Amino acid sequence: MLLICATTIPSTIVQDALSLTIVDQINQRTQVRSLWMKTRSGDFWNRIVNNHFTEQDWLDNFRMKKSTFDYICTQLFSELSPNPLAFRPSLSVEKKVAIVIFKLSSCSEYRVVGNLFGVHKSTVHTCVYQVCKAINELLRPLHITMPTIEEAKFIAQCIKLRTGMEQLIGAIDGTHIPVLPPKIGYRDFVNRKGWPSMVLQGYVDNNYIFRNVTIKHPGSVHDATVLKDSSLYKNNVTLIPKHYISINVKEIPLMIVGDPAYPLLPWLLKGYTVSLTPEQESFNTYHSSARICVENAFGRLKGRWRCLLKRCDINYKFMPQVISACCVLHNIVEQFKDNYHASWTKEVNEGNEGNICYAQPIQRELSQQTINTNSKEIREILKEHKAMNYPLRKSSFTH
């Protein structure tokens, strides 16, 4: 048609028509996307939390007081502060931290948390990764530390007054955290109870403070293997303070108490196993009373941060960062003396979706052949010391 028109219409007009046709085709193929952002309600955070939340509301929803929350935000400001050159307004540091703490304490899905705070679920995902990394980089070195010599002596004195056990500076144990395992390598994550998990090994002092944590092994790994691959085991000479007292002409070092799944070491004290004499059973009973602090710490940790109690929608590769961040937050709220509700522990123990579905596996006891000779002598001296100076006690458990 254009060729026909070209015989009667000037050539300049025909060229213009052809060029317009080409432009129209290009415009149809390359549609320009308009900048658009869905309007979401941030009323929960902007109005309700900031204007109407009481201290009790903060504890119920964020597991900490407002003053503790402000401290965390201040410490993380340098890492999480908004980019002033960003095209769209960035979230404030306070809102980022609030989103993550709420998710960790409630184990809600990304979508649910996003709807509550007025952001997209992908923003919640980004906040979780940014804030947890910032907590581990900036706050973990400040709040998860091994005790100094003076602190260790004080801890040992407190444990002695409470349990009668000498030279103990805390307890060590492992707990299993539910995770979403990968399709390839799924069996590596399945523990002895048949559900996928990661192992958190924690050394805890008498005040339920985590002093050392190891989070890098899937659920199928034995507690003793986790211990031998930890920094505490590899660097115990430098990490565990050196202080000795003399009992029956034997120098007794500072030690950490552990359950039968661990080896007996010069710095790690475990109880007796197999057939027990009355003195050995009594020693085990006192020994268990000193070990209860780590079990209570795990209970309080999961009571506050329910993402560790139930399987959450966070990638298993990032879960070690999340677990570590929860341990740091646990230490902060314990050190700041924030209230802990007994009902939170009840939820862990009775756990509608926690303990029933994810009962903690019991590890195999290590063979007596692994016992170090010097460690065995130390335990024997402590057993005799207990039998001579304290009344014999019987365990409430049947062997």
Structure description:
With 399 residues, the protein is of the alpha/beta class. Helix content is 51%, strand content 10%. The protein contains 17 helices and seven strands. Strand 4 and strand 5 form a beta hairpin. The chain has helices at 2-6, 11-29, 43-52, 55-62, 66-80, 93-106, 110-117, 121-143, 149-163, 186-189, 223-228, 231-234, 236-239, 278-304, 319-335, 342-350, 373-389; strands at 168-178, 197-204, 210-218, 245-247, 250-252, 255-257, 268-269. It starts with a helix and ends in a 10-residue tail after the last helix. The strands form two sheets. A five-stranded mixed beta sheet has the order 3-2-1-6-7.
In short:
The chain has 399 residues and is an alpha/beta fold. The protein has 17 helices and seven strands.
Which characteristics define this entry?
single chain, 399 residues, alpha/beta, 5-stranded mixed sheet, two-stranded antiparallel ribbon, 51% helix, 10% strand, elongated, disordered N terminus
Strand and helix map with partners:
Layout: H1 2-6, H2 11-29, H3 43-52, H4 55-62, H5 66-80, H6 93-106, H7 110-117, H8 121-143, H9 149-163, E1 168-178, H10 186-189, E2 197-204, E3 210-218, H11 223-228, H12 231-234, H13 236-239, E4 245-247, E5 250-252, E6 255-257, E7 268-269, H14 278-304, H15 319-335, H16 342-350, H17 373-389
Parallel strand pairs: 1-6, 6-7
Antiparallel strand pairs: 1-2, 2-3, 4-5
Mean of all residue-level pLDDT scores: 87
**Intertermini distance:** 101 Å
Tell the overall outline. Answer: elongated
The stretches of 5 or more residues where confidence is low (pLDDT under 50) are 1-6, 352-356
Radius of gyration: 29 Å
The structure class reads alpha/beta
- Main-sheet strand order equals 3-2-1-6-7
Query: What's the main sheet like?
Result: 5 strands, mixed
